[in-house]
Amino acid sequence: MADIPARTELKVTTGPIRGSRKVHVGNLGVAMRAVDLEPSSGEPPVVLYDTSGPYTDPEARIDIMAGLPELRSKWIRDRGDVEEVAQREVRPEDNGQLGPDRSGGVQPFPNVRKKVLRARAGHNVTQMHYAKRGIVTPEMEYVAIRENLGRERALDAARDGEDFGAALPDFVTPEFVRDEIARGRAIIPNNINHPESEPMAIGRNFLVKINANIGNSAVASDVASEVDKMVWAIRWGADTVMDLSTGRNIHDTREWIVRNSPVPIGTVPIYQALEKVGGIAEDLTWDIFRDTLVEQAEQGVDYFTIHAGVRLPYVPLTAKRVTGIVSRGGSIMAKWCLAHHKESFLYERFDEICEIMKAYDIAFSLGDGLRPGSIADANDEAQFAELYTLGELTKKAWEHDCQVMIEGPGHVPMHKIKENMDKQLESCGEAPFYTLGPLTTDVAPGYDHITSAIGAAMIGWFGTAMLCYVTPKEHLGLPDRDDVKVGVVTYKLAAHAADLAKGHPAARLHDDALSRARFEFRWRDQFNLSLDPDTAEQYHDQTLPAEGAKTAHFCSMCGPKFCSMKITQEVREFARLQEEKAVEGADAGMEEMSKRFHDEGGELYVPAADR
Amino acid sequence: MADIPARTELKVTTGPIRGSRKVHVGNLGVAMRAVDLEPSSGEPPVVLYDTSGPYTDPEARIDIMAGLPELRSKWIRDRGDVEEVAQREVRPEDNGQLGPDRSGGVQPFPNVRKKVLRARAGHNVTQMHYAKRGIVTPEMEYVAIRENLGRERALDAARDGEDFGAALPDFVTPEFVRDEIARGRAIIPNNINHPESEPMAIGRNFLVKINANIGNSAVASDVASEVDKMVWAIRWGADTVMDLSTGRNIHDTREWIVRNSPVPIGTVPIYQALEKVGGIAEDLTWDIFRDTLVEQAEQGVDYFTIHAGVRLPYVPLTAKRVTGIVSRGGSIMAKWCLAHHKESFLYERFDEICEIMKAYDIAFSLGDGLRPGSIADANDEAQFAELYTLGELTKKAWEHDCQVMIEGPGHVPMHKIKENMDKQLESCGEAPFYTLGPLTTDVAPGYDHITSAIGAAMIGWFGTAMLCYVTPKEHLGLPDRDDVKVGVVTYKLAAHAADLAKGHPAARLHDDALSRARFEFRWRDQFNLSLDPDTAEQYHDQTLPAEGAKTAHFCSMCGPKFCSMKITQEVREFARLQEEKAVEGADAGMEEMSKRFHDEGGELYVPAADR
User: How does pLDDT run across B21-61, given as a tens digit for each residue?
Assistant: First the structure.
C-alpha cells in the first residue's frame, strides 16, 4: 500500500463528543450517547440520538483505508434473497476521465469489494416489500430502539403539542415501524451493498431528521476533505449525507465515502451521467443513465434523487419566473426535453428504474427539479404541476414496493409554507417530505443557514420528515468544514424545535434537563447538553475564563452583584412556607416571611465565598 | 480637554456601508440608503431603510466628544409647550460610587447640557397627546416618509401575504401615522431631551423593527466599547438600542451613548435604582426610583422598561416553574414584594410615573418580569396573569396620553407562539408588542440567536412590532462587537421575513432585486443588496478569489462546466418562440427549437472567455 495516500492525508475527527459517553442499547447494540450530569443534580444521564457511528466510540478501531465494519451483512444474507455478482468494471468515464489519462485522479479505495450483492431473480429486497408481508426485519427493530430514546421516562408527562394530524406513538414498537414502512409513511434507506449503515427511519411519525450535502465540485475540494466532511457532519448530527460531487473522480470519491459512512448516503445520479457525456445534456441517453444507476447501486448508495417529475409540458411554465429553473437536475432534464422535444426519459422509463431500485433496496428521493429559486417564484404553477406528478410516480413506485420520499423547496415566504406541506401530504399519500430549508427571504446571502432554518423549523413542525441543511455559504461558494458544522447544528436545532412543537413525547426531556442545569448554575451540564458543547464553553470562557466561574452563581450578563435565578429559590421557600401557614391564613405566612427576610438580611449579593 | 480620553479611545466605525449611498428624502431630509445596481441590469437603485444615522454619511462630521446635531430641537421648541430647567445635579451614587472615590470612573461626557427641557406646567408633550388632538407633528411626517420606502413603485404589485388582521396601508401618509399613534397602535419614542434622534415608529402596521441591547456589566466592558457597540449596532440595522448597564458609571456611560445616538435609547431604570441602594432590593423606595426616572428623563432616554405588572399575588405562581423568574427587573420587584409583603410600588404609583413620562414624552415599555425562562414554563399562569395586568396599565397610561408598548417572551415552543400574540392584542388593545425572541428550544446554547430568530420571525409575522435581538452569547456571556453584528443581522432578516409574510407592499422589492441579480450573475449587486455585503463577498472570495470570478457565469457550487441558471435563459427563448409559432401550433415551434439547439450545438459549457 506504498502508493496510497498516507493516513495523515485522510485524517478524520474521532473520539467522544465532549461530555458524552457512547452507549449500546439492546441485543442489536443500538448506538446512543449519554450525557452524565453533575452528582448534585440527582438526575439520571440524558440519552441522546447519536448519528456519529463508530468514530465517537473509544472502543472502535478506525481505519479509513479498510472502511467500517459491516453491521448489517448477516441480516441481509440471512434473508436468503440475494446473490453475489461480480462488480461492474470501473471505467475512466466513471471518474470523468474520458481519455486514458488518469492524472489528477484520486487513489481508488484500497478495499473495494470484487463481489457485490443483488436481489436474486424474481426477488424484491426492499424494506417496504418485507413490511407489506408482515415481516419485521432487524433494521426495523434497530429503528424502534433508536427512536424510543428515553421515551419511557416521558410516558407520564402530558402530551403537549400540535401535530397537524401526524400519529406520534407514546412508544415505538418494531411493529409500528413495520406498519409505517408498509404504508409508505416512512422509509429506511439502506442499500444491501451498504451494510456499514446503521438503520434509521425518515417519516413524519419519527424524529425529524436532517441531511448534510458534501461533494467536490470541479472548482474545489478533494477526496480527503470530503471523507473528513462526512465524518464531521455526522459527528454533529447529520442523519444522512448526500454526495453531490461533480467533475472528475466522482466514482472513486464516492467509494471512499460510502465505505466509511455509518449513515445512509444519497446521490443525484444524473450529475455523473452528465459527466459521462462531457456535460452535454442533450447527449444523455437512457442507457448511460441506467448504467450509472447500476454503477452507484453496486457501490451502495442508499437513495437516489431522480427528477422524473420534470415533464416537457411543464418546462414553459417556468419561462416567466424571476429565477427560472435553479435545480441542476431539473435544468439538465429541461434542457434534454427541449433539445429533443421529447418527454423525459426518466418519466417514461420509471418502471424500469423501479426494477433497479428494488433489486438493491435503494429509496427514491423524487427530485423537485422545478422548485422555486426565489421568494417571487414560490408556490407557482410549475412547482405544483411537478408535485402532482411526483404523487403519481409515488403510487407507481409503491406498486413495486419501492421506498419513496419527496423533495421540496427551496425559497418560500412564511405564509406560503403550510400550503407546500398540505399539498404534498395530499398528492403524495403521506410519503415522507424532504425539503431544502425553505429560505424565508432572499435578502441575506451569508446568513442563509438562518433564513432557511426559520422555514425548516416551521415545515418540520407541519410534518416534513427530513430537512436538507443549508450552510452560510449557500449561493456564494462551497462550504468548508466550519460551514458544514454550523449548517448541521443549525438544522439540528430546527429539527428539535419541530419535534417539540409536534409534541414528540421525549423531545422536552432534553430541553428541561438543560433548563434545570441553567437554573441551578451547573455550567458544565449546560455545555455538555448543548448541541455544540465546544462552542458553548468557548463562548462562556471568553468573558469568564476562570475555572472557578464555571461553578459560580452568576454569569457575565448579570455580574456577581445580582442574579435573577437566586431570587427564585427564595420565592419557592416563600411559597412553601405560605402553604404551611395556610391554616393560619396566607397573611400570617407573608408576615412571617417578611420578618425572616429581614432577620436574614436577605441579600441579593452572592457571598464572595461563592464566587 | 487634556484630561479626557484621546479620540482614538472612542473610535467608532464611520463611512458608507459597502455598495450603499446615503440619500436624504423630502424637505425633512429623511435619511435612507440607496444601492446602485450594475448598468447592465437597467434597474433603478434599491432604496433601503437606514438606521445608521450620520455615521454612514460622508458629508457628516462625526465628533463623539460633541455628540450628534440636534435634528429635532427646533420642532420641539416651536410647539411652545416646553421650558428649560437646570439639570439635576449628578451625584456619586448615580454612577454607583457611594463614597467620594471616583476611581475607576469614566470621563463625564464633555458636552453635557446644563439646561434640560420639561413640559411647561399643565402641558403634555407626548406624540400621542398631539395625535389625539389631530396635530400632525414633524416627527409623524418624518416617519411617514421613512416608512414608505419605495412603496409607490410597488403599488401595482398584487398584495400577497397573511397579516392576521393588521392594517398595512398601500401608502403611508402623515395622517395615517397620526391616527395609529392616537389609537395607541404605534409609538414614536423620542424624549424631548434626545433631539438627536431620527423619528421612527414601532407598530404592527409599520415595518417590523429590531432592538439591540448593549451595556457594561460589573464584570466586563467600558464606555468606549459601549459607544462603539451602539454605533456598530445601528450600522447593521438596529432600530433602537437599550442600555442595560449595571454596576459603576451607569450615568456617565448613558450620557455618552444618548448624545451620540440617532436611534431611540431605552433603559431599565430599576437597574440603576438598585445600584443606588447597594444592590439590596428590599431597600428600594419610591423616592429613589422616582429620582432615577427624572435623572434619566433629563438625559434623554426615550423609553423605560417598567415592571409594574409584577404584583405580589403573582409571585407565588412562579414557585413550581423549572426556571422561576429570569427577568432581572421582575425578580428585583418580586423580592421587594416578598420582603415587605406589600403590593409593588410601581403598580401603586403608576399614575405618578405617567406624570413623569408625559412631561418628557418617554414611552412605556411595560416589562414582562414573569416571562418564561424555559420551554417548560411557556404560556403559564404567572406569565398571562402579568400580561392581563399590563393591559390594565396600558389603558391607564393612555388616559394620560402616554405612549406604551408591551414586552413579551422569552422561551416559547412554536406551537405556543401565536397564543402569546393573540392574548397580547386582546388584553392590551393592540398596543405594540415587543418580544425577546422567543427561543423555540433550550438545547442550543451558543446558537440562541438562531433558536430565537425562528420564534422572532413567526411572532413578527403574527403582529409583533419590535423584536429584541438575541446574540450567540445569550445565556453564556457578554456579547462582543462581532456578536452584536451577528445578532443584529440575524434579527434584521427575521424582521424582513415577517414583513414579507405579512404582505408588506414594499418588502418584496428587496428580495426580487437580489434574486434578479443572482439569476443574472451580477455578483456585486448580490453582495451590495445583502444585509451584510462584507460577509457575502468574503464568503464568495474564499472559494473564488479571482476578481474575474465576480463576473463569471458560475459559482463554485456548480463549477464552470454546468450552470442551472443558464439553461433558463434558453427555456425563455424557447417559450418566446413557442408563442410566436402558436399559430402554426406548438409542435412546429418545438421542432424549430430542437433544430436550433442542435445548429447552435447548445452547449451547457460556459466558454472559457466568459470565465
Answer: 999 999 999 999 999 999 999 999 999 999 999 999 999 99
**Beta-carbon separation of B376 and A515 below 8 A:** yes
Q: Which residues of A touch B576 (CB under 8 A)?
A: 319
* Residue B30, beta-bridge partner list: B25
Residues of A in contact with B492 (CB under 8 A): 444
Residue in B closest to A524 by C-alpha: B476
Upstream peptide bond of A410 is cis (omega within 30 degrees of 0): yes
Q: Give A418→chain B minimum CA distance, Å.
A: 12
Q: Per residue in B551-568, pLDDT tens?
A: 555 555 555 555 666 677
Provide the number of CB pairs (under 8 Å) joining chain A to chain B.
446
Which residues of chain A neighbour B565 with C-beta distances below 8 Å?
323-324, 326
- The answer, yes or no, to whether the previous bond of A313 is cis (omega within 30 of 0) is no
Distance CA A592, CA B338 (A): 10
Percent of chain A with pLDDT over 90: 73
Dihedral of CA atoms B449, B455, B460, B462 in degrees, nearest 10, equals 180
Residue A599: the pLDDT is: 55
A555 is in an annotated binding site: yes
pLDDT value of residue B3? 40
Q: State pLDDT tens for residues B85-142.
A: 999 999 888 987 765 555 566 788 988 888 999 999 999 999 999 999 999 999 999 9
A123 is in an annotated binding site: no
Interface probe with B: pick from A35, A557, A578, A600, most Cβ of B within 10 Å: A557
User: Which chain A residues are closer than 8 Å to B449 by Cβ?
Assistant: 450
- B187's grid cell: 409609538
Query: Which residues is A33 bridged to in the sheet?
Result: A22, A48
pLDDT of residue B1: 32
Instruction: Tell me the pLDDT of chain A averaged across its residues.
Output: 89
> What percent of chain B shows pLDDT beyond 70?
86
Interface test with A, best of B47, B275, B370, B442 (most A CBs within 10 A): B442
Q: Is B449 annotated among the ligand-binding residues?
A: no
Within a 10 A sphere around the Cβ of B157, how many other Cβ atoms? Answer: 13
**Amino acid identity, position A396:** K
Predicted-assembly ipTM surpassing the 0.85 threshold: yes
Chain B hits for A282, CB-CB cut-off 8 Å, are 597-598, 602
Using H for helix, E for strand and C for coil, what is the string for B530-541? CCCHHHHHHHHH
- Interchain proximity A331–B567, CB inside 8 Å: yes
Helix (H) or strand (E) holding B84: strand B82-86
Mean pLDDT of B482-487: 97
Q: What residues have CB less than 8 Å from A114, skipping those under 6 apart?
A: A86, A87
Q: Do B315 and A571 touch (CB under 8 A)?
A: yes
Cross-chain residue pair A564–B328, CB shorter than 8 Å: yes
Cβ within 8 Å, pair A440-B556: no
- CA neighbor of A215 nearest in space, from A275, A281, A288: A275
pLDDT for res B553? 53
Per-residue model confidence (pLDDT) at position B601: 47
Helical ranges in B188-304 per DSSP H: 223-235, 250-259, 269-276, 286-299
**Interchain CB distance below 8 Å, B603 and A447:** no
Question: What pLDDT sits at residue B114?
Answer: 87
Q: Go through B209-232 and write b for each residue having 16 or more CB atoms within 10 A of its CB, e for each that does not.
A: bbbbbbbbbbbbbebbbbbbbbbb
Residues 6+ apart with CB under 8 A from B527: A445, B18, B19, B533, B536, B537, B540
Q: What is the per-residue pLDDT for B605?
A: 32
Split at pLDDT 50, 70, 90, the class of A542 is confident
Quick check: A536 and B476 CB within 8 A? yes
Owner of C-alpha cell 430541553: A511
